[in-house]
């Protein structure tokens, strides 16, 4: 892409840092090649930052207009106005440039940067005499061949309003993709800056209070770190994400205070933390093979890191990934346990069942299986057992060969009186009345 060699280069470099040069080139060129329309990136003053000249050239009409310095300035003012209007409304802005051509602008808003992708150089109607006369008035004062300009205007591509709107919408998608990529980088930078600020503040606080370190204090430092690592492992295993995140930050402060400039040492300590956290996740019930795969991915990421501040963000993301996976894994296992408990109840509702019996079937503690069953189905184990028994009783009551006492016994109710009370509470009628209606 052709770029202007001016003070605008700083803006270009800033955009490339956020979005990436390859992505900017690819997005603009792909749009131009697919639509046959030239696309340029401008700032809010109408200055062209990036252009797709090598992919799609300006039409002859525009080249002649811009060959005059005053014409080029008018184009810039048109772009600046379009950029302002597009940013104001946050959507594609279709406009008519100073020379009478139809163009459109898609806004790009990144942090303090305001700009637009501008495209067009078309007509939406057949050029008639009055239009060519209007062009003659528009270009008056410019040192160009008016007859040649009018002839070039007659050769311009004519697009319907639907196609113009569709192209503007597509350009808006391109602009949004660029903004999304830029915002992702900005967010990551802010996270790194915020985390580094917190860590730096605590490190400085420690340095202000720091006294000469003796051998005993050094040993105590190591013991304290081991205690924190053990506590972190316990918190991760129990799924306590907020406390785990706070303790990890304290450990990161310890690690950075010990070897702030030795990248290899820092990477080694980070990998040790990854091993501690991954083991805790496995102890919490996660699948070992899947945890090992995650560990392998984090190890590859770690090798590509070149700055200490990126290590801290890596550690934060590593902990969050492991804990989210552990939580998802636990939810899946809980759902399986709930399903298994429900199936066990359906198979054994006639028997005298206790919570201990159900818990033993799913290999969980009575307290834990009761809690996850209530969370998952909205009722307790015993309430669910009662519902299953009542549903079975309703089926049997519809059969003439069973009386109410037989139904109560076959449904798992030892006391016919209790059966009647429970049935009426759930169904609104007694078993006898239900049987009358059913028959």
Automatic annotation (TrEMBL):
Domain of life: Bacteria
GO molecular function: DNA-binding transcription factor activity; sequence-specific DNA binding
Keywords recorded for this protein, A-Z: DNA-binding, Transcription, Transcription regulation
Annotated HTH araC/xylS-type domain residues: 339-437
Listed name of the protein: DNA-binding domain-containing protein, AraC-type
Organism in which the protein naturally occurs: Desulfosporosinus youngiae DSM 17734
């Amino acid at each position: 892409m052709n770029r202007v060699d001016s003070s605008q280069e700083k803006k270009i470099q800033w955009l490339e840092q956020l979005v990436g040069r390859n992505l900017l080139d690819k997005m603009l060129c792909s749009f131009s090649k697919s639509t046959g329309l030239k696309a340029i990136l401008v700032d809010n003053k109408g200055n062209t930052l990036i252009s797709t000249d090598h992919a799609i050239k300006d039409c002859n009409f525009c080249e002649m207009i811009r060959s005059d310095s005053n014409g080029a300035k008018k184009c810039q003012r048109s772009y600046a106005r379009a950029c302002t209007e597009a940013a104001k409304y946050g959507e594609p802005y279709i406009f008519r440039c100073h020379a009478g051509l139809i163009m459109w602008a898609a806004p790009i808003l990144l942090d303090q940067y305001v700009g637009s992708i501008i495209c067009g150089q078309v007509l939406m109607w057949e050029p008639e005499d009055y239009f060519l006369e209007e062009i003659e008035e528009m270009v008056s004062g410019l040192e160009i061949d008016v007859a040649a300009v009018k002839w070039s205007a007659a050769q311009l591509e004519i697009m319907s309003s639907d196609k113009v709107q569709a192209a503007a919408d597509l350009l808006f998608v391109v602009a949004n993709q660029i903004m999304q990529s830029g915002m992702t980088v900005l967010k990551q930078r802010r996270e790194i800056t915020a985390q580094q600020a917190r860590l730096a503040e605590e490190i400085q606080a420690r340095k202000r209070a720091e006294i000469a370190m003796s051998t005993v204090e050094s040993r105590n430092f190591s013991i304290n770190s081991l205690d924190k690592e053990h506590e972190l492992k316990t918190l991760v295993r129990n799924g306590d994400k907020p406390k785990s995140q706070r303790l990890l930050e304290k450990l990161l402060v310890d690690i950075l205070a010990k070897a702030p400039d030795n990248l290899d040492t820092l990477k080694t300590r980070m990998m040790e933390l990854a091993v501690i956290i991954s083991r805790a996740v496995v102890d919490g019930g996660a699948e070992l093979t899947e945890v090992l795969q995650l560990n392998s991915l984090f190890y590859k990421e770690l090798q590509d890191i070149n700055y200490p501040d990126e290590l801290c963000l890596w550690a934060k993301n590593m902990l969050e990934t492991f804990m989210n996976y552990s939580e998802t894994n636990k939810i899946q296992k809980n759902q399986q346990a709930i399903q298994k408990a429900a199936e066990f109840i359906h198979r054994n509702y006639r028997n005298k069942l206790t919570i201990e019996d159900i818990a033993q079937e799913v290999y969980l503690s009575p307290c834990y299986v009761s809690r996850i069953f209530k969370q998952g189905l909205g009722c307790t184990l015993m309430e669910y057992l009662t519902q299953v028994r009542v549903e079975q009783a309703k089926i049997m009551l519809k059969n003439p060969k069973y009386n109410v006492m037989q139904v109560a016994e076959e449904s798992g109710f030892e006391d016919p009186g209790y059966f009647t009370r429970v049935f009426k509470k759930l169904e609104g009628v007694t078993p006898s009345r239900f049987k009358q209606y059913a028959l």
